Amino acid sequence: xxxxxxxxxxxxxxxxxxxxxxxxxxxxxxxxxxxxxxxxxxxxxxxxxxxxxxxxxxxxxxxxxxxxxxxxxxxxxxxxxxxxxxxxxxxxxxxxxxxxxxxxxxxxxxxxxxxxxxxxxxxxxxxxxxxxxxxxxxxxxxxxxxxxxxxxxxxxxxxxxxxxxxxxxxxxxxxxxxxxxxxxxxxxxxxxxxxxxxxxxxxxxxxxxxxxxxxxxxxxxxxxxxxxxxxxxxxxxxxxxxxxxxxxxxxxxxxxxxxxxxxxxxxxxxxxxxxxxxxxxxxxxxxxxxxxxxxxxxxxxxxxxxxx
Length: 308
Description:
The protein is an alpha/beta fold. The chain has helices at about 25-35, 60-70, 90-110, 140-150, 165-170, 215-235, 260-275, 290-305, and strands at about 5, 45, 75-80, 85, 115, 155-160, 180-185, 205-210, 235-240, 280-285. It is globular, with a radius of gyration of 17 Å. The model has no long low-confidence stretch (mean pLDDT about 100).
């Protein structure tokens, strides 16, 4: 079982204001814990710069132009109340896209069984035409389209266990039955979407969880709603929007999971990928804002990916 890790120093240069939860220290915490000897077998590769044209797989040119125009020469520019751009944000975002697409190439071309991409800014809140929620471009959506266009994937599943609903991914694939989007998330919570009744073209499966929900309810929702949908869909590729802010230490939500829950969910999705996708699984970092909770959860997630 070969697990590849993509990351890059440029991700640290996407600067956010002091006190902002989506900060460079998140990746430093991940880097420190993955430097442990337990992860010595990880195939570590520097993220490549993405092809700007692939952004158009999920966003119109007007969206791309808006982000490009917002990049300041110095300091920081607010995109919305939560999202900012700094001088290196464009390069960081394009490198995150490059890593996501390279990960797809790796699992289809046999260089890795699965891949974890430790990048920022995250992506699952970026809608077709709206950057928001710390996100500029939707990395998971672009990677799914890349799998379809380059590798002929007929069915791509995106599993999102970030504690915040991935409104952007849902928006992009709302009426596209070739992509299944499954999400567990706290509700009510930002961004306010993700009700069970939001089903798109039958390809959207939301499993909202009440605040203070813990292990039992999360695993029940995953087992009763997400896994059956994946089984019925039989994906050619599984992409995980791997947010770890449902951890009980996280300051932005109250789902109260542990790192063992992320280990378990990873194993469930891997089993599904083995059944239908030749084991092909690409995991993209989304949220997770308590540094210890994030680090321990990523360690559990990557450790499970490596075990197979």
